[in-house]
Design a protein that fits this description.
globular, alpha+beta, 1017 residues, 39% helix, seven-stranded antiparallel beta sheet, 34 helices
């Protein structure tokens, strides 16, 4: 028999139900001690992954361990360690048989071998990992110590403390508790007035006010933005700007409105598929579109689409399930019971989505659009009422249109590229449409062998909409429009012959923009005749205007001399463009004198569909095309055209998900070793077997079913993950420290009963995060002082037993907001575009593509909260990075706090902190008495919510005196210190001097950099 105990990896799949009947003590021993031991030394070679399993032996399943591997010798014999091959192989002196294998790994310590022997002696019971069992509420009715406590959090914490012999700390004083409460709920310190009100009305009333403050959503949205890897740029080499801030605005509003967390997740995963969906739920699906986008030249688009997909699964795993998933994209997970097949089952739920972008309108604009649509519908209904046989007329119109259409044969191209090499056209599905993937390009060429065996008389260029394009395209410019400078057609008789350019004539189109002469007539845009006029300064454009421009178009050109394609003949089509076409189709015909129909091409495409497969949009397109050519409807047509002129310009757009139609359904394959170009067997959407089942009795789309499954009340993970994440933000560390991974590498948390109770309580109260925060923040556990004795610190250095209040440095954004708030500079405005912060010039110069748009905000916008700061992936704000803010490349659900000189240098010297110090100095001088002592006390109350002690007062007075002396002696220019301009002074309060302002600017810099200022307590 061959088996190994090797590296620290952990995989324990679901155990047979009978195994879970062990008593709680046995379960605890297995989960706390045996499972980590097996994971650390055994399971890489004897775990779930059959590709790395040796000797056919599995130790992650009890029955497999009892049966043994290929040798069929029982590895474990319950109640008999002496007969168990496991113990023999651990203790043998034969180096060829000893496990872990020598010389790679040392022999297991005797204590660990004895632990395994005792476990086998007691029956070798396995147990399901704690986090894969649905949480339940512990009974709070028992326990004399807990009976004196009325709050469930305190009762559960007291039980654990009692077993450990640890006592809670006294309550924090009101001033510090008030500051802690403000920082935890809204991320801002209290003003002096707010501290006085806290003392009057108490914690509960203050908490209610804070949870209803618009500042609450701004604070808590930032944590979700980390998990969602929100950024204002695309990442990679070019890292260009993107419009996505409206998704951030949605998150802030959703949190302020206390949208239930299950609905919060469902809308972000599948809001576009909800029956009650609207623009807001569409915006929500921007969550998964926050991935990076690679716009480098010569990339393979499908390869990087796979990178995006892997990132989305990783994001859902960390943010919602609290599990790592990356391992399983290449092989069955070696830590958690996720097989490679199950990974691609999850993948399949998200794989059938377009990379869509849509316009977003204000409420007023939506009302205007709704009015336009209602007016047009009423006018069309008037037509239907007035023309009794309109249906017959529409059908006759359709029949006549079809009769006059040429018979077109689409060309399948085998060589599609651009001269620049930046764009990569590919055929879509079976309709032979061509999607322009990769970077935009001014030219493309397409080479193929036509399947038409008759004389070719004309060529058709269809410019088609596609949901992967901005606003459905059909172009790839920022509004989805396009313009073609020139269309050229060449052919050759054999693949080795010279290309011959064909003369083109008689260009026609379903629609052309009005002729627009530019540059004194040297350039022009408009009619389709410009498509073949041999002049690249003139171009065909088909832009129907706001609300209608994202529509298909068609152009037809005739060959001046028809050609007969030889059997080996090839055709080459070249398009040169100013704004690139995003999707098109090229077809040939042998019909004499072919022309484009004057009927809108979207209507022609709708007519090509079978009646039972037409959508409402198809039927509307055909009806619209009919009424536009009908003389009887001229009056209504004019009114409808006039109504469309009021169509509003969108305020912004959003990247979001949109499900592909059945005819374009994407098939998911397992990818060999995770390689995008190595597809194996087909995988249908399904969920991991070790978690709760999915409801299959529904006709809902797969992605929506997946969203509902994630938030199912039977889920053992989702509610726990949310509770743990919120606890982490309040106490600095989650009840499970690895908040991104509640999988099998994590031991049962010390406070598991508390975690589970709060998880169930969250679900019982409609997944309300405000309710959860209220539960936690009203507990005595939260309200304890953070002061600690050396003895208590020795007993519990990481506060596992929650015997003291939280104390840690605030997050980067909170530190910045504290400085702006206490200085009086902060500007409160909910939502809107991101604000560009000041950064050093050398940071800008370092960019591969210089961000010419980087113009730091001025005026009040400069001092908006950090949640609104522009986030550029390849150029993280150095002040935020020094304080450990992530750069949004990947999902981050747990920031690691560092302690380096860079942090102190940032808060001392970065532009915003200098400006905050200057403003704080003037505020202190304005709001305090003439005495420096009074000013110092006021300054301390602003910055740390307490009065200074005598020693602190004396140090501050000495600092002020020293700086006044330096200014008076001419060593320092008070204008430079207080404004940064040698010729300008700030507006000084009465009875103050420039020396006062300069000295207090230095003092303010010191106060803003106190550990106490930038920390919670």
């Amino acid at each position: 028999m061959k088996f190994r105990y090797q590296v620290p990896l952990l995989i324990l799949a679901l155990i047979h139900p009978a195994i879970c009947n062990a008593d709680d003590g046995q379960k605890d021993i297995f989960l706390d001690q045996i499972q980590p031991l097996l994971a650390e030394h055994c399971l890489q070679c004897h775990g779930q992954d059959e590709n790395t399993r040796e000797g056919g032996l599995r130790l992650d399943r009890r029955q497999a361990a009892l049966e043994g591997g290929d040798s069929e010798i029982p590895t474990i014999v319950p109640n008999s360690p002496d007969r168990s091959e496991l113990i023999r192989r651990l203790t043998t002196e034969d180096e060829s048989e000893r496990m872990p294998p020598s010389p790679d790994h040392p022999r297991l310590p005797e204590a660990q071998i004895q632990l395994l022997s005792n476990w086998i002696q007691d029956g070798a019971d396995y147990a399901t990992h704690w986090s894969f069992v649905a949480p339940r509420k512990a009974d709070l009715s028992n326990g004399q110590q807990e009976a004196s406590l009325t709050h469930p959090v305190d009762q559960l914490v007291a039980r654990v403390q009692k077993r450990a012999g640890i006592k809670s700390s006294p309550a924090a004083d009101d001033q510090l508790l008030c500051r802690r409460l403000y920082l935890d709920t809204i991320g801002l310190p209290p003003t002096p007035e707010q501290r006085r009100r806290f003392k009057e009305v108490g914690l509960q009333a203050t908490l209610n006010e804070l949870l209803n403050s618009p500042r609450y959503g701004e604070k808590w949205a930032r944590h979700w933005m980390d998990a969602a890897r929100y950024s204002d740029t695309n990442g990679y080499e070019k890292d260009l700007k993107r419009e996505q801030w409206v998704w951030r605005e949605w998150v802030i509003n959703a949190i302020n409105e206390d949208l239930p967390f299950d609905a919060f997740i469902i809308q972000q995963i599948a809001g576009d598929l909800l029956p009650e969906g609207n623009q807001e739920t569409l915006i929500a699906t921007g969550f998964l579109r926050n991935s990076m986008l690679n716009e480098e030249g010569a990339i393979i688009p499908e390869q990087f689409r796979m990178v995006e997909m892997f990132d989305r699964i990783d994001c859902v795993g960390k943010a919602v399930l609290g599990m790592t998933t990356q391992c399983a994209q290449c092989h069955s997970h070696k830590y958690d019971p996720i097989s490679m097949t199950e990974y691609y089952g999850l993948f399949a739920f998200l794989n059938n989505s377009y990379e869509a972008q849509s316009w977003i309108y204000t409420d007023q604009q939506q009302a205007t659009i709704g009015r336009i649509k209602r007016e047009n519908e009423e006018l069309e209904n008037q037509i239907k009422s007035r023309i009794a046989n309109w249906e017959q007329q529409v059908q006759s119109f359709e029949n006549l249109t079809k009769q006059h259409l040429a018979k077109w044969t689409p060309v399948r191209f085998h060589d599609m590229n651009s001269v620049s090499g930046l764009n990569h056209p590919v055929h879509e599905a079976d309709d032979l449409s061509i999607l322009m993937l990769g970077h935009t390009s001014a030219d493309v060429y397409l080479i193929g062998k036509p399947s038409i065996d008759t004389e070719v008389t004309g060529i058709q260029l269809e410019v088609l909409t596609h949901s992967d394009l901005p606003f459905n395209g059909p172009g790839r410019n920022p509004v989805g429009s396009w313009a073609v400078r020139e269309l050229e057609v060449l052919y050759r008789e054999t693949p080795t012959s010279e290309w011959q350019k064909l003369a083109l004539t008689n260009a026609t189109a379903d629609y052309s923009s009005a002729d627009e002469q530019q540059d004194e007539g040297k350039k022009a845009v408009g009619p389709v005749t410009y498509l073949i006029d041999g002049n690249d300064q003139r171009q065909w454009k088909s832009d129907r205007g706001l609300g209608k421009r994202n529509a298909s178009s068609v152009a037809v050109v005739q060959l001046e001399t028809p050609i007969k394609m030889p059997e080996q003949g090839e055709i080459k089509v070249v398009m040169r463009m100013s704004d690139m076409v995003g999707c098109c189709r090229i077809s040939l015909t042998s019909d004499p004198a072919p022309k484009a129909s004057t009927v809108a091409h979207d209507a022609v495409l709708a007519m090509s569909k079978a009646l039972d497969s037409r959508t409402n949009e198809d039927r509307s397109a055909i009806f619209t095309a009919w009424r536009l050519q009908n003389a009887e409807t001229e009056q209504e047509n004019n009114k409808i055209a006039e109504s469309w002129r009021a169509f509003p310009t969108a305020r912004t757009s959003v990247l979001h998900l949109k499900e592909r139609v059945d005819s374009k359904k994407r098939i998911t394959h397992r990818l060999d070793r995770g390689n995008w170009d190595s597809p194996k067997e087909t995988i249908d959407p399904h969920v991991p077997s070790f978690l709760h089942t999915m409801d299959q009795d529904t006709a809902e789309p797969a992605r929506l079913r997946f969203a509902r499954w994630l938030t199912d009340s039977r889920s053992p993970l989702t509610a726990r993950v949310m509770v743990n994440r919120i606890w982490q933000q309040i106490f600095g560390t989650g009840l499970v420290e690895t908040s991104e991974d509640l999988g099998m590498r994590t031991k049962p948390p010390v406070q598991q009963a508390l975690l589970d109770w709060l998880a169930v309580d969250l679900m019982e109260h409609n997944w309300s995060r405000k309710h959860l925060l209220n539960r936690i923040l009203t507990s005595k556990t939260y309200q304890q002082t953070s002061r600690i004795s050396a003895e208590s610190y020795t007993k519990d250095p990481t506060n596992l037993y929650l015997a003291r209040g939280p104390r840690f440095r605030a997050d980067a954004e909170v530190i910045r907001d504290i400085a702006l708030s206490v200085s009086g500079l902060i500007h409160h405005q909910i939502g809107g575009p991101s604000v560009i912060p000041p950064v050093p010039q050398n940071v800008l110069d370092y960019n591969y593509v210089y961000p010419s748009y980087w113009k730091p905000a001025t005026g009040p916008d400069r001092y908006r909260r950090a949640v609104y700061s522009f986030r550029k992936r390849s150029m993280p704000d150095p002040s935020m990075s020094s304080l450990d803010a992530p750069n949004a490349d990947t999902a981050c659900v747990r920031r690691v706090r560092s302690n380096t000189p860079l942090a102190a240098l940032t808060t001392l010297n970065e532009t915003i902190f200098i400006e905050a110090a200057r403003a704080l100095a003037i505020r202190i001088l304005k709001e305090s008495q003439d005495s420096d002592t009074e000013r110092i006390r006021h300054a301390y109350l602003l910055c740390v919510s307490r009065l200074p002690n005598a020693a602190e007062e004396q140090r501050m007075i000495r600092l002020l005196d020293a700086q006044r002396t330096r200014v008076a002696e001419g060593w320092l220019n008070p204008r430079m210190i207080t404004t940064g301009n040698a010729d300008q002074l700030p507006e000084l309060p009465p009875n103050t001097t420039p020396q006062d302002a300069a000295a207090w600017t230095f003092a303010a810099r010191v106060l803003l950099n106190l550990d106490e200022t930038i920390s919670k307590n």
